[in-house]
Design goal:
Structural class: alpha+beta
Bound molecules: iron/sulfur cluster
Number of strands: 6
């Protein structure tokens, strides 16, 4: 079911001309999402990854968006200016076809959360650490369509079961239920 409401939309704009490929954004984001927080740096955990576009000789920061339960049909034909790229390099979706945007320990999909936490940060971390100014944060009011997030839980559960096995997941949920 889809419904819409007036919401504050948070955006991070990218200026490719300013990105130097320093990957400070990856490091900051991965540290922010480590457990405990800021205890380690592992770009595999980052919700932003910097991809080199070899054709245009620029770095392209890509943020993790929604996950999908199935790989898209176009992934073997990603073509830019007549040249084919291996896999879907600039896609921000966590999907079964590749390891990008998956939590390294659990294999669960990761998604940019705009560093939401309490108390709120003064702005997204990746923007704060981007010294060349390639990333900028903006907010705007907009009508946003919401879809009942029925698929997200299933994708996360499937990834967890694939990683840990159904019996372990079931036992863990049972133990947790008893503690609650
Ligand atoms: S911190 Fe900024 S300049 Fe460095 S890789 Fe990330 S987006 Fe590019
Ligand atoms: S806004 Fe925060 S969570 Fe999103 S990519 Fe940047 S550092 Fe990571």
């Amino acid at each position: 079911m889809v419904h819409s409401t007036a919401n504050k939309v948070k955006e991070i704009k990218v200026d490719l001309d300013k990105c130097t490929g320093c990957r400070a954004c990856e490091m900051a984001c991965s540290a922010c999402h480590a457990t405990p927080k800021y205890s380690s740096v592992n770009p595999a955990r980052s919700r932003i990854r910097v991809i080199k576009d070899v054709l245009k000789d620029v770095y392209v920061p890509v943020r993790a968006g929604d996950c999908t339960p199935a790989e898209c049909t176009g992934r073997h034909a990603y073509t830019v200016e007549g040249k084919e790229y291996p896999e879907c390099s600039f896609c921000g979706v966590s999907c079964p076809a590749r390891d990008l945007f998956k939590e390294p320990d659990s294999g669960l999909p990761v998604k940019c959360d705009m560093c939401e936490e309490l108390p709120p940060l003064s702005g997204p971390l990746c923007v704060q650490v981007c010294r060349p100014g390639a990333l900028s944060y903006a907010e705007r009011e907009a009508e946003v369509a919401h879809e009942t997030p029925q698929g997200e839980l299933e994708v996360a559960l499937k990834a967890l079961i694939n990683r840990q096995g159904l019996r372990n997941v079931r036992d863990s949920v049972a133990r947790r239920s008893q503690q609650e």
